Amino acid sequence: MARGKDRNALNHFPSFENADNFNLLSPALDALDSYDTFALYTIDRKNLRLKLTGIYPCKKRAKRDTDKRSILPDRKVLEKIIQGRKAEIISVKDINRSSSGSSTKIHYMVFPLMQENHCLGCYAVVRRSKAPFTDKQFSEAGSLAPHASLIIQNITLLEQLNEKEEAVQALSELLSQAQCDLKRAELTVEKSLNTRRSFLARMNHELRTPINGVLGLTHLLLSHEHSIEHTEYLESIKTSGEQLLSLVNNILDVSDLETGKLCVEELEFNPRELAEAVQQKLLARVRKKNLPLKVMFRNLPEFVTGDPVLLNQILINLITNAIKFTSEGHITLQGELLTTEGDTAWLRFTVTDTGAGIQQDRLNTIFESFSAKDDLAKYSDGAGFGLHLVKQLTKIQNGSVSVKSTEGTGSEFSV
Description:
With about 425 residues, the chain is α+β, with helices and mostly antiparallel strands. The chain contains nine helices and twelve strands.
């Protein structure tokens, strides 16, 4: 039989698609002419059963049998020999020829292949003849063990490589699917954020219009003479309207911050005038509670460049919180120049109140979003926006916010 046909016979076994592995055995097998078929078995790692890996017919005796697998040993016999870990010679009746009265038998030389204490498989040298294998032939066949072990190791490495390639491919497919899922999730989130922002923008506009209308009419009514009782009613309407308008503005600013659409302007303004304007806006509220609102300055420059709108909103939120929590005493807003670095001036604004103070274990959470619950509600305008918004507005201007508080004494917020 030609070498090409030998290789085709091996291609029936998927674990040994490359018959070139048998080239390691070819010279030794060619010298061993006392056999019909050489069969190699490996241990299937999935079910721990013997698996026929390849058949190598003897070229000199190939014409004697058309199907070499018909004379292969029974797997149970092979497994028993492997368990004993000792090579054996076995002879069995040739059932295909016993009916004709022939004394021909099938002889097997089976050699377990061990690596340390681990069984790699085995190989069988098979011959159909009247005479059994001799001790010399048994010794010569045993010399094939190193070559057979190397073939099995190559097969095992190839199988492991294929398994890893399959695992990598599966992971690659999972990663690709995960990326697609992530992309869809990002698009869904982005769509949801855009929908929410669009809704908030429309609602903001719809709410601001009637609120500004109410505030405008209230200012107009206050410009006329009224009884003391009616004037108090109008002042209450004005205060409530301004608080509602501030809350609406905070809601939109929080939305802009979360979507990254709130921009910091670079405008020149007078920080003293800005602080005094904040004081004037909140005078009606502090007077209602009979609280003095003091404004103090120390070394503030006349003009700075920054975002006056954001600073105005920060100060209003801090002072509004102080007003809500302070029932007696006073509230102070102080502005000061900390340091200068070239063209950069670092300012600090501090709002101090004489309220009841904040528990020490709550100071780390006071700036969290929607933390206004239980006794924290009084610090966060009841909606969870105020101080969280202060922190975020300060952060986007490369600043920071801190708080000091003592229960029963008051609080101090600095930005």
